């Protein structure tokens, strides 16, 4: 499953970050961050003292130590999945030229 997620990330990244967007690091980080967040959040489970539907807890906060550890672990795993793909894509596009970036949209 991880390889499919990495392949989807590579395809989306190539389409989003175009020729003129290479000077915009926020766009590159935003695409990567969106994939990390979308992969991390579904791994979090609601603590046993909360009901999931509707979300009601006996405490005001839902993030206990176990939930934070799950978030950190899943976040690190997501970064470890997408960071090598991002680095490889940038290396292949910038240094080697094996894959070219798509042209930017024409401004009228």
TrEMBL record:
Transmembrane feature ranges: 68-89
Keyword Transmembrane on entry: yes
Superkingdom of this protein's organism: Eukaryota
Keywords: Membrane, Transmembrane, Transmembrane helix
Name under which the protein is recorded: Uncharacterized protein
